[in-house]
Amino acid sequence: MNEKDLLFQQVINAKNASKQMINLTNETKNKILVAIADKIEKNIEDILFRNGIDIEAGKNASLSRHFIDRLSLTEERIKDMVEGLRNITKLVDPIGEILDTNITENGLKIEKKRAPIGVIGIIYEARPNVTIDTIALCIKSGNAIILKGGSEAMNSNHILSKLAIEAAEENGLPIGAIQFIESANRELFAEILNLDKFIDAIIPRGSQEMIEKISEISKIPIIKHGKGLCHIYIDESADIKMAVDIVINAKTQRPGVCNSLETLLVNRNIAEKFFTEFLKYLTENKVNLELRACNESFDILTKMNKAISPDMKNILMATSEDWDTEYLDMILAIKIVGNLEEAINHITIHGSGHSDSIITENIENAEKFLKLVDSAAVYHNASTRFTDGGCFGLGAEIGISTQKLHARGPMGIKELTSYKFVIHGNGQVRK
Amino acid sequence: MNEKDLLFQQVINAKNASKQMINLTNETKNKILVAIADKIEKNIEDILFRNGIDIEAGKNASLSRHFIDRLSLTEERIKDMVEGLRNITKLVDPIGEILDTNITENGLKIEKKRAPIGVIGIIYEARPNVTIDTIALCIKSGNAIILKGGSEAMNSNHILSKLAIEAAEENGLPIGAIQFIESANRELFAEILNLDKFIDAIIPRGSQEMIEKISEISKIPIIKHGKGLCHIYIDESADIKMAVDIVINAKTQRPGVCNSLETLLVNRNIAEKFFTEFLKYLTENKVNLELRACNESFDILTKMNKAISPDMKNILMATSEDWDTEYLDMILAIKIVGNLEEAINHITIHGSGHSDSIITENIENAEKFLKLVDSAAVYHNASTRFTDGGCFGLGAEIGISTQKLHARGPMGIKELTSYKFVIHGNGQVRK
User: Fold this and answer.
1) Residue B137: which domain range?
2) Together in a domain, A238 and A147
3) Does the residue A10 lie in any domain?
4) C-alpha span between A411 and A222 (Å, rounded)
5) Which residues in A287-366 belong to E strands, given as ranges?
6) B322 and B297 share a domain?
7) pLDDT of A54-105, one tens digit each?
8) Residues of A with CB below 8 A from B348's CB?
């Protein structure tokens, strides 16, 4: 079979397997998940060895430090995957859940019942744990899976999916329900994005460019997992200590992830007070953060900085590009705004609809911000870092949707389902 | 302004208006809907006059009888629109509904809150009532609307949208929230399907070809309202009288709509008995139905027909094309199958995932059919004609989704919404 036939056959096999997955009981699904967990646990050394090959190649190819970090597995990270699998067994099986019941006047019983989506294709970069998380969530939600990882993680993804497929099919998963695509041929892969009869949804996780490209060429519906250009707005009446704590947490606790802070908006009337405490914190705690400040804040910050910490040199003047950049790094854009409306307007224009927070003691301003900022998660007096399936109580997540159709924000097993209307009658006809 | 600039400006205006719609109270939205209803009621004559121009042009262009029917307005149909508007005022405002609340261990209150989608574009053919139904549903669900009707209904859609916009904007709808596209320039229109920053969802309603074309070129997420190739399967243990009644209802009560029957599957063991009663009914009631029968059923039907009704000549041999054709006419494809599995398999291959029904007294077979047939609505002992927002208790519908992401089956105001996570904290940071 040539490369194209092989690839298309994988897609057809996934579709066929998906039709049998509706028959899987929760017991069987959990048995499969435990078997995968056990198998991965027994093969940690081999997984680390294969991952080492990818890391080595990545370093030779001068991939960025953050990228290598996302690519890297450790014994602890593998144990997290294993724990994730076991946690998902504890979740209630979503399939078959009755979402709504309606008995009509003529006696029809109409039930809206949760059902699998069918075949889900995921396209992802770096993180090999996505391979296992996706397999686990799709099995529990009754979906077949097509995995297309990045070439930089090929060895890691290959061993992980191989172990998972073996353990799953031995324990009752329909043959072909997990398909791992080995081909790195992009043009060929683009062709499968036309197969909307066989694949029901595509989840692209990765760079904005990759997601844009896929949404342009795909006929299959997409659930975008796009960038997180998150904002915090420090309102005039913010509690300064709280503001500093939250900004530091949102920016520095894990700068490489999508829910971390990128742009800080500060109300003019509190700017000096806030910056004083903020710079003090950075100096005292030796936080190595680069600031890209608007003209006005640049003046204030550099002036203050001389007084507080004459050695700190990492305050730069922001360019217009900074407001649209997801750094995923120890860099923070800072802009002074005149009022709440200006802050909301900035977020509307430059935000990515991911997570945005207001720090204020003014309830009215908080409610206005929460209502008018059109993002998946809007916060009052909390760090944006909480936008996460685990923190939101979903048990696990396949990612964070940045679109508004189907699912928004963290996506767990329920978000990997559709529904159907099941109608019981006794001869009803329409008048 | 040239045509392109004008069109793009319309899209930008819709986006800007959509941001203000979140502020509309239910009271204002209802006031707007009533004002539109009143205005339309007062202008029935003018509407009928403009519709007459479209009908005349359609007849001159030799559009089909069914198409002209869908295009035609009558006083009664206009009054139905008006009633529809008034009915929607009675529905609970979906915006702001709390779908889920979760208080985390560290005291964060996470609310999942229903929110508008933003800007919805609808592309539709013929039926001018879609103009008003869409406007009404989108206003109630807080969305801005871009309307692109077919050129065959231009005069009708133009007057209806003009009246609606006037009445709505006079009563508090943000200026620009309803945009009616006059240009018939298809290439230009294709360009706006790239404006995913401004339009949040596209609903194409119409021919399969049109929907395929749009899903190929659009960067904006789509909610497909595709064809309805509906099946009824007469199981071995069906109640024959019930089976005949349901088949006649599903096929002939309104053959031009998407939830009408197209292909009848009959179990071999009940075929003779069923066909006897079915042909008797057709003859006695002078039902002018054309049958396109598989080889086996053709033999039975023609033999029987000679005995029952020697004059009836409309039994033809089906070709393979018939299994994939949505007739929307007084034509029925008929196929004999050996068992339930064969019926399900036929539906899986040829169905459109819209509505399919099994007629049986065997509960086990019914449950298997309802579970394994992957359609938006699956019926046991009832006509497929019930797949409809009104029948399903949604109050009103913008159409019937034939896809699995976001919404499936009849779509009402809730299906025109998204959600956001609103999080209240008191200084929480992530550990």
Assistant:
1) 3-226+402-424
2) no
3) yes
4) 14
5) 290-293, 315-317, 331-337, 355-359
6) yes
7) 999 999 999 888 889 889 999 999 999 999 999 999 999 999 999 999 999 9
8) 19
Whether residue B185 sits in one domain with residue B38: yes
- Taking CB atoms and an 8 Å cutoff, what residues of chain B touch A17? none
Q: What is the pLDDT of residues B351-374, one digit of tens each?
A: 999 999 999 999 999 999 999 999
Contact B381 A22 (CB under 8 A): no
Distance from CA of A70 to the nearest CA of B (A): 19
CA of B369: which chain A residue's CA is closest?
Answer: A422
What is the Cα–Cα distance from B146 to A351, expressed in whole angstroms?
24
Q: Is the domain of B174 the same as that of B249?
A: no
Contact B376 A221 (CB under 8 A): no
Residues A300 and A323 in one domain: yes
Q: Is B391 inside any structural domain?
A: no
CATH code of the domain covering residue A360: 3.40.309.10
H or E element: which one contains B194? none
Does a structural domain hold residue B394? no
Q: Which CATH number covers residue B180?
A: 3.40.605.10
Chain B contact set for A366 (CB, 8 A): 424
Q: Write out chain A residues lying below 8 Å of B371, CB-based.
A: 22-23
Q: Of how many residues is chain B composed? A: 431
Average pLDDT on B100-110 reads 94
Confidence (pTM): 0.91
Whether residue A412 contacts residue A137, with contact meaning beta carbons closer than 8 Å, is answered with yes
Split at pLDDT 50, 70, 90, the class of A397 is confident
Ranking A240-249, B89-98, B183-192 by mean pLDDT, the lowest is B183-192
Is A115 touching B (CB cutoff 8 A)? yes
Instruction: Work out whether the CA dihedral A209, A212, A215, A216 comes out positive or negative.
Output: negative
Least confident among A36-45, A215-224, B230-239: A215-224
Q: Do A404 and B371 touch (CB under 8 A)?
A: no
**Distance between CA atoms of residues B240 and B268, nearest Å:** 14
Q: Does the beta carbon of A216 lie under 8 angstroms from any beta carbon of chain B? A: yes
Task: For residue A217, give both structure tokens.
Answer: 């060429």
Q: Which residues of A touch B248 (CB under 8 A)?
A: 429
Say yes or no: A377 contacts chain B, CB-CB below 8 A.
yes
Same domain, A80 and A212: yes
> Residues A265, A231: contact at Cβ < 8 Å?
yes
> How many structural domains is chain B composed of?
2
In a domain, residue A219? The reply is yes
Partner B, chain A 19-48, Cβ-Cβ below 8 Å: 19, 22-23
- Residue in chain B closest to A120 (alpha carbons) equals B405
Query: How far is the alpha carbon of B62 from chain A, nearest alpha carbon, in Å?
Result: 31
Query: Measured between alpha carbons, how far is B332 from A195 in angstroms, rounded to an integer?
Result: 30
Shared-domain flag, residues A140 and A250: no
Q: Which residues of B touch A377 (CB under 8 A)?
A: 420-421, 423
Residues in chain A: 431
Asked if residue B236 and residue B190 are part of one domain, the reply reads no
